[in-house]
C-alpha cells in the first residue's frame, strides 16, 4: 500500500493551527469593528456629509465580508438595499462583484504547497494528497479529476457548463452552509479550471438580478419587506 505523501500532522502543527485560527479570529473582529465604526461615524457627522461617508464605508465593509467564506455579507447588502433602495442598488451590485472577485483571485493565486501544508496540519492528509496530485495536471485533466466522482452524467454536465453551475451556486438559497458566495468563489479559483475574465463576467451576471429588480421596482420587491 502506498504511503501518503503527507503524513499526519506532528505535535508542532498544533501551534501553527492556533496561530492561523488566531489570525482568522482577529480578522473577523477587525471587520466587525470596522462596520461598527462606520455606523458610529455616520451618527456624529453632518447629515449631508455623513450619509455618503457611511454608505461608502458600509459598501467597503460589505465587499470585504462578501469575500470572506462563511461571513454574513449578504445581510449587509440587503440592509443597504432596504435603506436606500434604487439609489444604492448599483453600488451594492458593484461591491458584491468586487468581493466575489477578490475571493476568486485569492483562491486562484493561493499556492498549492502552502494549502497542502495547512491541510496536513489539520490532519486532512487525503485532501492534501489529492491537491498535490491535481496541481501538476493540465486544466482539462484537473477538471476531470474534480468531477469524476459525481454520479452518472452529472460530472460531464457540470464540467461542460461549469460557469452556469457557478452562477447557480452563487444564487442558491442557504449557500452559506457551503461557504457562501466568498467560499464558492474561492474554491472556484483554487480549482484553476475557471478563466479569470469568464468568471468575472459570470459574477457580474449572477449577482445582477436582485439589484436590478430593486432599481426597476423598488425595495418592496424584496421578500423581507412583506
Kindly, what is the distance between the CA atoms of the first and last residues, rounded to a whole number of angstroms? 60 Å
Low-pLDDT segments:
41-50
Mean of the pLDDT scores? 76
Largest sheet: none
CA radius of gyration = 20 Å
Number of helical runs? 12
The level of helicity is over 70%
Helix/strand order = HHHHHHHHHHHH
Tally the beta strands: 0
β-sheet strand percentage: under 5%
> What is the overall silhouette?
globular
Global structural class: mainly alpha
**Count of distinct structural domains:** 1
Keywords: Membrane, Transmembrane, Transmembrane helix
Transmembrane segments: 50-70, 91-110, 163-188, 200-218
Characterise the protein shown here:
The chain has 226 residues and is mostly helical. It has one domain (12-225). It has twelve helices and no strands. The protein is globular and about 50 Å long. Keywords: Membrane, Transmembrane, Transmembrane helix. The chain crosses the membrane at residues 50-70, 91-110, 163-188, 200-218.
Question: Which key phrases capture this entry?
Answer:
226 residues; mainly alpha; 12 helices; membrane
Quick overview of this protein structure:
By secondary structure, the chain is an all-alpha fold.
Topology record:
Layout (H helix, E strand, L loop, with lengths): L11 H32 L3 H21 L5 H12 L4 H20 L3 H10 L3 H10 L4 H9 L6 H7 L1 H9 L9 H12 L4 H11 L2 H9 L9
Helix pairs in contact: 1-2, 2-3, 2-4, 4-10, 4-11, 4-12, 5-6, 8-9, 9-11
Amino acid at each position: 500500500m502506498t504511503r501518503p505523501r503527507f503524513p499526519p500532522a506532528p505535535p508542532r502543527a498544533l501551534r501553527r493551527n492556533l496561530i492561523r485560527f488566531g489570525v482568522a479570529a482577529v480578522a473577523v473582529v477587525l471587520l466587525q469593528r470596522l462596520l461598527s465604526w462606520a455606523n458610529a461615524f455616520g451618527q456624529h457627522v453632518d447629515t449631508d456629509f455623513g450619509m455618503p461617508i457611511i454608505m461608502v464605508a458600509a459598501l467597503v465593509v460589505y465587499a470585504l465580508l462578501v469575500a470572506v467564506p462563511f461571513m454574513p455579507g449578504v445581510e449587509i447588502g440587503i440592509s443597504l438595499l432596504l435603506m436606500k433602495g434604487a439609489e444604492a442598488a448599483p453600488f451594492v451590485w458593484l461591491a458584491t462583484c468586487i468581493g466575489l472577485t477578490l475571493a476568486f483571485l485569492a483562491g486562484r493565486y493561493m499556492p498549492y504547497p502552502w494549502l497542502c501544508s495547512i491541510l496536513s496540519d489539520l490532519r486532512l492528509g487525503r485532501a492534501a494528497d489529492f491537491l498535490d496530485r491535481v496541481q501538476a495536471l493540465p486544466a482539462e485533466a484537473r477538471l476531470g479529476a474534480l468531477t469524476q466522482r459525481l454520479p452518472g452524467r452529472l460530472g460531464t454536465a457540470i464540467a461542460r457548463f461549469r460557469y452556469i453551475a457557478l452562477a447557480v451556486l452563487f444564487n442558491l438559497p442557504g449557500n452559506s452552509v457551503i461557504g457562501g458566495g466568498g467560499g464558492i468563489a474561492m474554491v472556484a479559483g483554487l480549482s484553476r479550471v475557471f478563466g479569470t475574465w469568464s468568471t468575472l463576467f459570470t459574477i457580474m451576471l449572477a449577482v445582477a438580478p436582485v439589484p436590478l429588480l430593486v432599481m426597476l421596482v423598488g425595495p418592496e420587491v424584496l421578500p423581507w419587506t412583506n
